[in-house]
Amino acid sequence: RHILLINGPNLNLLGTREPATYGSTTLADVESAAQEQATALSAKLSTFQSNHEGAIVDRIQAARGDVDAIIINAGAYTHTSVAIRDALLGVEIPFVELHVSNVHAREEFRRHSYLCDKAAAVICGMGVYGYTAALEFVVKHLKIKAR
Ligand code: DQA
Q1: CA gap 17, 91 in Å, rounded
Q2: pLDDT tens-place values along the chain, 147 residues long
Q3: pTM
Q4: DSSP 49-109
Q5: What is the CATH T-level fold of the domain 2-140, as seen in this structure?
Q6: Where in the chain are the domains?
Q7: Residue 101 Cβ contacting ligand 1 at under 6 Å
Q8: Distance from C-alpha of 15 to C-alpha of 66, rounded to nearest angstrom
Q9: From the candidates 77, 99, 114, 131, which is the catalytic residue?
């Protein structure tokens, strides 16, 4: 199984940005822990981070026919991007929407997601453990289509 982990805008600052909300673990820590976990689960993991909406769309498009499931923390684009939603639907790859913080306990505008109604699962409020939970879920429990 080939899993793609996408982190969107400002998640390159994970661990240093608003630590009271997002914790002190860096994105590099998250990605290396996820690589180890994937190896232990006999899965292949690719990771991608971008602050640019179009670059995220391009990466999702490139995943078609190559990736079995996507885990995406789209950051603020979750709340704004029809383009990322359309890309995910266009490639027909099942995905998990993830947020480190509990978006429902914050500003009202974070409660709306352009992705959640199409996601296989939504994880929020677990801190960076959400990445561990998402990877375990997609490898062990998600029904993945033949490609
Ligand atoms: C986030 C929540 C979003 O509302 C915010 O814009 C982010 C991070 C999270 O991981 O909690 O950048 O996706």
Answers
A1: 32
A2: 999 999 999 999 999 999 999 999 999 999 999 999 999 999 999 999 999 999 999 999 999 999 999 999 999 999 999 999 999 999 999 999 999 999 999 999 999 999 999 999 999 999 999 999 999 999 999 987 776
A3: 0.97
A4: E-S-HHHHHHHHHHTTTT-SEEEEE-GGGGGT-HHHHHHHHHHT--EEEEESS-GGGS-GG
A5: Rossmann fold (3.40.50)
A6: 2-140
A7: yes
A8: 30
A9: 99
Active site residue 22: yes
From CA 77, how far away is CA 58, in angstroms rounded?
Answer: 15
Q: Please tell me if the CB atom of residue 10 comes closer than 6 angstroms to any atom of ligand 1.
A: yes
**Structure token digits, residue 10:** 């400002």
Note if 2 is an active site residue.
no
Nearest CA to ligand 1 atom 12: 75
d(CA 51, CA 8): 6
What is the Cα–Cα distance from 7 to 72, expressed in whole angstroms?
A: 6
For 2, the 3-state DSSP assignment is: strand
Rounded Cα distance between 3 and 135, Å, is 8
Burial of 144 (0-12, 13-18, 19+ CB in 10 A): middle
